[in-house]
Automatic annotation (TrEMBL):
It is an enzyme of class 1 (oxidoreductase). Its cofactor is Fe(2+). It comes from Acorus calamus. Belongs to the metallo-beta-lactamase superfamily. Glyoxalase II family. Its main location: mitochondrion. One of its GO terms (biological process) is glutathione metabolic process. This is persulfide dioxygenase. The keyword Oxidoreductase applies. One of its GO terms (cellular component) is mitochondrion. InterPro entries: Metallo-B-lactamas, Mito_Persulfide_Diox, POD-like_MBL-fold, RibonucZ/Hydroxyglut_hydro. The keyword Metal-binding applies. It is found in: Mitochondrion. Residues 25-194 form the Metallo-beta-lactamase domain.
């Protein structure tokens, strides 16, 4: 199996970094095309608390940040998108149309986010929230192999996002994961938005085989999701309103 460092150094000219915010156990991903002197880059799911670290890394690596993407309206932390745009107004914030959140660019299934010769393809994976999307690296010449899937909270490693708020639906999540993620090539790397168990990466094949809830039939899955008994995220009342304006709430309040 191809390792993370192999994926990073493949002929696709993809530079890839997985970053972590420990208070909310959130992963942010940095991707860049380094086959051209412009070195266009994007961030997936930046967190407000670690924006300074991420922008400093981008500067160190000589990259040009072009897009800041969210997989969904997060309930447990404030997106870094607003802070990034405050400092770098040319960066394009991205979220799904179905999320009903403010952003420069609203995407839907089938859209492509292009950076250099690389691109991310948008797959609609609602269920954790109504507007969740998964971003998957492209297929074909110049694209990294194996593919990389940024699954947000739709699919976690040996888990999945809860479905008890923000338009969540266990029925919809089951369908999303089985039709949009489990149909990807089995060697596709799975990079989620969170991990609470110490994992960093999985593959589609591994989750098809070992995911404890999504390997079950749909009825059993729904029963599991109804009985998770998780407490609401501590930051929820702050994070959701902020993320609906892509973390721009302070800037908006000043206008
Ligand atoms: N304790 C945390 C919140 C943990 C939580 O609810 N995480 C969400 C993803 S963030 S919306 C989730 O779906 N978890 C699934 C699971 O099985 O844990 C806090 O207070 O922030
Ligand atoms: Fe979430």
């Amino acid at each position: 199996m191809c390792t993370l460092s192999e994926a990073s150094s493949s002929s696709s000219r993809l530079l890839f970094r997985q970053l972590f915010e420990k208070e909310s156990s959130t992963f942010t991903y940095l991707l860049a095309y380094v086959g051209h002197p412009d070195r266009p880059a994007l961030l997936v799911d930046p967190v407000d608390k670690t924006v300074e670290r991420d922008l400093s890394l981008i500067k160190d690596l000589g990259l040009k940040l072009t897009y800041a993407l969210n997989t969904h309206v997060h309930a447990d932390h404030v997106t870094g998108t607003g802070l990034i745009k405050g400092m770098m107004p040319d960066v394009i914030s991205v979220i799904s149309k179905a999320s009903n959140a403010k952003a420069d660019l609203h995407v839907e299934a089938g859209d492509k986010i292009v950076f250099g010769k690389l691109f991310l393809e948008v797959r609609a994976t609602p269920g954790h929230t109504a507007g969740c999307v998964t971003y998957v690296t492209g297929e074909g010449a110049d694209q990294p192999h194996p593919r990389l899937a940024f699954t947000g909270d739709a699919l976690l490693i040996r888990g999945c996002g809860r479905t008890d708020f923000q338009g969540g639906s266990s029925q919809q999540l089951y369908k999303s994961v089985h039709s949009q993620i489990f149909t990807l090539p089995k060697d596709t790397f799975v990079y989620p938005a969170h991990d609470y168990k110490g994992f960093t990466v999985s593959t589609v094949g591994e989750e098809i085989k070992f995911n404890p809830s999504l390997t079950k039939d749909e009825g059993t899955f729904q029963g599991i999701m109804e009985n998770l008994n998780l407490s609401y995220p501590k930051m929820m009342d702050v994070a959701v309103p902020a993320n609906l304006v892509c973390g721009l709430q302070d800037l908006v309040a000043k206008v």
